Amino acid sequence: MKKLKVKWKRAQIQDLNDRLLLYNLYLTQGLALLIGVIWIIFQGRNVLKLFAFPSGLQVLWWGLGLAAIMLLVDLLLSRIMPEDAMDDGGINQLLFQNRPIWHIICISAVVSVCEELLFRGAIQYSFGPYWTSILFAVIHIRYLRHWIPTGWVFLSSYGLGYIYVQTGSLWAPILCHFVIDLISGLALRFRRYEE
Questions:
Q1: 8 A C-beta contact, residue 137 and residue 143
Q2: What is the rounded CA–CA span in Å between residue 112 and residue 177?
Q3: Residue 9: its pLDDT value, please?
């Protein structure tokens, strides 16, 4: 019987095509959702209760307010920092630059719901916002080559955890995450790239 030899190699940005990139995106988000749901069930909590809509506008203000602050800080960082210090390896550009608007909206919604359910709904309940934010930064591995984007991902995650605690609703960080991803995705979609 022949042994199956599997060779692992790190994929480079030039090795990714659109189909493979989307496959990996949706696969990782599906895993985040599945792990989050299982984790919450093992915590003895009701997943559906986490998605109950709040009665007031507090969630809206916290979510949109933090999104506005984070987008302004991100814009400021992109203006004052060298481009290579904020580089994610080109993944976001590849993901969004040729994507139809409806798909950018869909990606933003899927990512915000899946990641916030896992990180704020499940992990933060067990470990608190600090350790959750460290894990969130590590999971966003494409930023780990540079300390500024890594630190920014950590602070962003901590902010998402903070508004979750303040509102008691998962919808605040979901809304904030969605708005940030949507606006960032649309900016990359309509950005003019110099040849």
A1: yes
A2: 5
A3: 55
Distance CA 148, CA 187 (A): 20
Taking Cα atoms as reference points, which of 177, 181, 185 lies closest to residue 62?
177
Residues 63/173, Cβ–Cβ less than 8 Å: yes
The separation between CA 88 and the C-alpha centre of its own chain, rounded to angstroms, equals 13
- The sign of the dihedral angle between the CA atoms of 116, 122, 124, 127 is negative
> Which tens digits make up the pLDDT trace of 108-136?
999 999 999 999 999 999 999 999 999 98
Portion of the chain with pLDDT greater than 90, in percent: 61
* The residue to which tokens 């203006």 are assigned: 79
Alpha-helical segments (H) within 2-146: 18-42, 47-50, 58-80, 91-96, 101-116, 124-139
pLDDT tops 50 at residue 5: yes
Residues 6 or more apart whose Cβ sits within 8 Å of residue 49: none
pLDDT, tens only, 31-65 = 999 999 999 999 999 999 999 988 889 999 999 99
pTM for this model (two decimals)? 0.86
- Between CA 18 and CA 60 the distance in angstroms is 34
